[in-house]
Amino acid sequence: MQQLDIWGATRALIEIYGANAVTTAAKRAERLVAEGNREGARRWEEITSAAQEMLNRRQPNASYS
Known about the structure:
Layout: H1 3-17, H2 21-34, H3 38-58
Helix pairs in contact: 1-2, 1-3, 2-3
């Protein structure tokens, strides 16, 4: 997945889940690891990190994870 796709998916996730986007993405990554889908999990880990970064930019002193 290209970096632009990661950021686009992250923006959509934040629009839907708001401050819960980080937790939602992390749970999806964990589920994929449990299913043996390391590539999918890696992508969702990237989305988790991007969501944390985006949300921190909006609220520098807030913690969403």
